[in-house]
Specification:
MLTR_LBD, alpha+beta, 46% helix, Beta-Lactamase, 258 residues
């Protein structure tokens, strides 16, 4: 019984963990969710059982990601709201088609689809330029952030490595804090261990952080990244899928890609 309790904490314990992660008091959460502080206290201590609507209201107030919302519902003895199917499931054909169309639309500019852990799911033809020289062992189970900053990946070709590393680590650190994901925390620790300049390097004052990459014949390819997500997904695979495109920041980069 002790092991089961450790693996499956009750709803009140999970909710308190999320509240503390968001640095909210019970009163703060009550005000945000438009419920009484007394009711929040009763739920956390197990003196009151939350309804499905209450779980979802509290989860929204705490900005709990979709996967963790399912965990909260299950901990409360309720059915999860999000399904989870693999991308190749027949029921995911619309999502697959949408991803394929987006990737194709960005050609010849690099574009890739990744899951919540930044594992690469699909790429377009233009991505081949980014992957030139990446070691084979990084392509066995490709992870976009690992490929980006690993010494055997893109790192030797990135002109502004300290700045790009600072951007990538900051982004992953925020994602790990928001999601509470052990997978993200593990990846963050790995990425932070890579060499490549001061991770606290400041931005250079531009509008966005560019990716400056060594190209052929000493040319410098400069990219700006954009991210697309499914805003109304009711499946975890779709909800956690991101499409990242690398657009040319200048005409010389665009011409080189064409």
């Amino acid at each position: 019984m002790t092991t089961a309790h450790a693996q499956n904490p009750p709803f009140g314990t999970l909710m308190r963990t999320w509240r503390q992660r968001r640095r909210l008091s019970q009163l703060d959460l009550a005000l945000e969710a438009d419920v009484s502080a007394r009711h929040v206290s009763f739920i956390e201590t197990g003196r009151a059982a939350p309804s499905r609507s209450m779980v979802l209201k509290l989860a929204a107030a705490l900005d709990v990601p979709a996967r963790e919302q399912n965990q909260l519902l299950l901990a409360a003895g309720l059915a999860p709201v999000y399904t989870e199917r693999t991308l190749d499931d027949p029921g995911m054909s619309a999502v697959r088609s949408g991803v394929k169309r987006v990737l194709a639309a960005y050609n010849p500019f690099p574009c890739l689809a990744v899951d919540r852990g930044w594992n690469v799911l699909q790429v377009n033809a233009g991505t081949a330029l980014l992957l030139e020289g990446v070691a084979a062992h990084l392509m066995e189970r490709p992870n976009a952030l690992r490929i980006s900053l690993h010494p055997d990946g893109l790192a030797p070709r990135i002109r502004n490595l300290a700045q790009w590393r600072h951007h990538v680590i900051g982004r992953l650190r925020r994602e790990a804090a928001v999601s509470g994901s052990a997978e993200s925390a593990t990846l963050l620790a790995e990425i932070e261990s890579y060499p490549g300049g001061d991770s606290g390097a400041p931005d250079l004052g531009g509008v966005v952080v560019p990716l400056e990459l060594d190209g052929d014949d000493g040319a410098v390819l400069t990219f700006l990244s954009t991210v697309t997500t499914f805003g109304t997904a009711l499946d975890l695979t779709a909800a956690e899928l991101s499409i990242e495109a690398f657009l040319p920041a200048d005409e010389s980069t665009a011409e080189a890609l064409r």
